[in-house]
Design brief:
Chain lengths: 269, 264
């Protein structure tokens, strides 16, 4: 790590934020639109549970607490991983060549040169407001241990999703187009994760735990606090594994990225 | 009026859409997954109860298969006009001896037919096999359902038509379009059946065009409406189409006077 790295990160963050918020009214409108778009699912859950009281034992506040983790982690994730989310475009336009020429690590640049601030604000605000509304109502006792657990769970959740983005980005070196794959492996799986995984059939549960470990982003951390009955069928250790799974899958994705980068062929001219 | 050029536009956009096959397969899969998720959720919510408020689990499933299927099949390009304003090509469009609004509709119909055939139909068939749906109440109900579905598409399209016209005044309408789609997603009953919404919200929805899009056809399909109610609801769909198209057209006429194109 070079001595001016921190300074460089600061400059990058400042410039991207400036660029995204150049047109203030538009930026606020866009952030609001993202917030509302994401709130759609929340409103649907709220309305559904007003009618049915509980879903497999989860009441409305517990369900929204589960969701809050999903939005909060995405809000943080997107500040850093926008470059990986949009990596397909970067490769197709030949812009990746520019990164190769700069005297810094590739992943470092991808992570810090861009940030989707509208998504960060939209998802982040939604996550925080859901957390504030629900945290008091689901009976969580906050002490040093639980606060630390929460922070590590959020970090783990960010890393798990970051690993999926990194894996998909690395696949860009082999495939021309990964947008549809991203839709399936990330966005569709995320839709499943908005509800307790115990309501799904076995195949999907296994998929959510072992294949694309979304269950560790929000279900198990929420279970740690709530200890709902439906969680009894899963290994007890799962409640504590989020940071480990996060670190593990991120490392795997990183190794795959390092391996794949050799196969990069420029599309530029 | 000579329809030939419009038919050519419709045909052309149909053919253009056939180019991206892989994308369609993924889209179909995505729709099926969504239907499946809601099916799983409601299966869990229903548990052992056969009916909730007189609505059976089968009816809920039917609502999701049809309305999520339709939302995949009802093609709307919210940025058709805005795109042409941004890149300035609207100027040449206006010089052509055909109606721009006619062309807009024609291209949309071409795309719509494609989406119905290659998005709605596969998703519908998979949905029926995977989760099953109630059969239509009667042959007549099926016929009226198809008419009402076509009208529902009309409502969806004319809403988009009216919203797009604001692009004459606003540089960026992405936010407005997104908020419009949020309203449609929540209030049309495609994500939570309107039956299960609280009373006050249902009363509110009665004053909006949103339940005319998917929910009216679904109700007709399930035989929930009497003959008179069907006539009333379909008339309401027509009224909304006329209203939205009227608003859009007024904006279109005013917008043209205000039209500013950057560069050239």
């Amino acid at each position: 790590m070079q001595s001016d790295t921190i300074h460089l990160i600061g400059v990058y963050l400042k410039t991207t934020a400036k660029a995204w918020f150049q047109y203030r009214v538009d930026a606020i409108m866009r952030s609001l639109a993202v917030f509302l778009r994401e709130a759609t699912g929340v409103v649907v859950i709220y309305l559904t549970l007003m009618k049915f009281q509980d879903l497999n034992g989860w009441n409305v506040y517990e369900m929204l607490f589960l969701c809050s983790l999903l939005f909060l982690t995405y809000g943080i994730l997107i500040i850093f991983f926008t470059g990986l989310r949009d990596f397909g475009n970067t490769v197709r336009k030949g812009e990746f060549d520019r990164y190769l020429l700069r005297p810094r690590g590739l992943l470092f640049q991808i992570i810090f040169v861009n940030a989707d601030w509208f998504a960060a604000v939209g998802h982040g605000c939604l996550g925080i407001s859901l957390f504030l509304v629900t945290a008091g109502k689901v009976g969580v006792v906050w002490n040093v241990g639980t606060v630390l657990y929460y922070l590590f769970a959020v970090l783990g959740g960010v890393l798990i999703q970051g690993a999926i983005f990194l894996l998909l980005a690395a696949l860009n070196f082999y495939l021309l187009e990964t947008d549809s794959l991203k839709e399936l492996l990330y966005y569709d799986m995320k839709k499943f994760a908005a509800y307790p995984i115990s309501i799904y059939s076995k195949v999907i549960q296994i998929c959510m735990i072992y294949v694309i470990p979304f269950a560790f982003v929000n279900y198990f951390p929420a279970q740690f606090f709530l200890r709902k009955q439906d969680g009894a069928v899963y290994p007890f250790a799962c409640l504590y594994l989020t940071p480990v799974v996060g670190g593990g899958v991120y490392l795997l994705a990183y190794l795959f990225w390092r391996y794949s980068i050799r196969y990069y062929k420029s599309s530029g001219n | 009026m000579n329809l030939k050029p419009y038919i050519a536009y419709a045909r052309k956009s149909f053919l253009m859409r056939s180019a991206y096959r892989f994308d369609h397969i993924m889209q179909i899969l995505s729709t099926c997954l969504q239907i499946f998720i809601y099916w799983e959720i409601y299966r869990s919510l229903y548990g052992s109860s056969i009916e909730v408020d007189g609505i059976s689990f089968g009816m809920v499933t039917t609502n999701f298969v049809l309305s999520l299927g339709f939302s995949a099949g009802f093609y709307v390009n919210d940025f058709y006009l805005p795109q042409k304003i941004w890149d300035g090509s609207l100027v040449t469009e206006l010089l052509r001896p055909i109606s721009f609004r006619g062309r807009m509709l024609a291209e949309n119909i071409g795309n719509g037919v494609f989406s119905m055939l290659f998005r709605f139909l596969p998703a519908f068939v998979i949905g029926v096999v995977l989760v099953g749906i109630c059969p239509p109440e009667s042959a007549a109900a099926l016929g009226l359902f198809l008419v009402s579905a076509a009208l529902g598409y009309g409502v969806l399209w004319t809403i988009s038509f009216a919203v797009q016209m604001t692009a004459f005044w606003l540089v960026n309408i992405w936010s407005i379009v997104t908020i419009k789609n949020v309203c449609i997603n929540i209030l049309s009953g495609s994500m939570i059946p309107i039956w299960f919404m609280p009373e006050w919200l249902r009363n509110l929805i009665d004053f909006t065009p949103f339940s005319s899009i998917y929910f009216t056809p679904v109700q007709i399909y399930l035989g929930q409406l009497s003959g008179r109610e069907i006539a009333g609801k379909c008339l309401l769909q027509v009224v909304w189409i006329v209203c939205m198209y009227g608003i859009g057209s007024v904006l279109w006429k005013r917008g043209q006077r205000k039209l500013v194109i950057h560069g050239g």
